[in-house]
Write a structure and sequence with these properties.
152 residues, alpha/beta, Cobalt-precorrin-4 Transmethylase, domain 1
Length: 152
C-alpha cells in the first residue's frame, strides 16, 4: 500500500505544489479545507481542480473534514491547544465521520491519496489528525510532502 500523503501550500507556488505531487505520483488530492477558497493564486477550488486535472491528478473536496470557523481562528491566533479541542469535537460529528469513512475507502483501494490544507507544518494543521485517524484504521504509513518556500 502506498503511504497517505499530506501537503500544505503555505508559502508555496502552485507550480511547486503540482511538481511535488507529481514526484510523489499522487493520483487524488483531497482538499480538507472547510472553505476551499484562497487569496493565494491558484488555490481556490475551481482553479486548483483544473490545474490538477491538467496534471492527471483527481481532485475531491471533503468539506466536512475541514476545521470549523472557531478552530481556524484559534489556529491563526497560534492557540493549538484550542484548535485541537475544537477539531476533536468536530471530527466526531456524523457529517465528518461520514466523509472520514469515504476517505478511508479511497485509501483502502490502494490509491495514492494526498490530503491538502494551508499550513506548511503538518503539526499545526488538522490534516495531521485526519491522517492519524486513517492510519489508526488502515495501518497506512503517513508521508508529509513539502515544497520549497517562495523565494528560495
Amino acid at each position: 500500500m502506498p503511504p497517505l500523503f499530506t501537503i500544505g501550500y503555505e508559502k508555496a507556488a502552485l507550480r511547486d505544489v503540482l511538481q511535488t505531487l507529481k514526484r510523489a505520483k499522487v493520483e487524488l488530492l483531497v482538499d480538507t479545507r472547510a472553505v476551499a477558497a484562497s487569496r493565494r493564486a491558484g488555490f481556490s477550488k475551481k482553479m486548483l481542480a483544473a490545474s490538477l486535472q491538467e496534471q492527471g491528478i483527481e481532485y475531491l473536496h471533503l468539506q466536512k473534514l475541514g476545521t470549523p470557523a472557531e478552530g481556524r481562528e484559534a489556529a491563526r491566533a497560534g492557540d493549538l491547544k484550542k484548535l485541537w479541542r475544537i477539531y476533536g469535537k468536530h471530527i466526531k460529528t456524523p457529517e465528518a465521520q461520514a466523509q472520514l469513512g469515504d476517505l478511508e475507502s479511497l485509501v483502502r483501494e490502494g490509491r495514492r491519496v494526498c490530503l491538502l490544507c494551508y499550513e506548511r507544518n503538518p503539526d499545526e494543521c488538522h490534516r495531521s489528525r485526519i491522517a492519524e485517524l486513517i492510519q489508526e484504521s488502515t495501518g497506512q504509513k503517513i508521508e508529509n510532502l513539502f515544497t520549497s518556500p517562495l523565494g528560495i
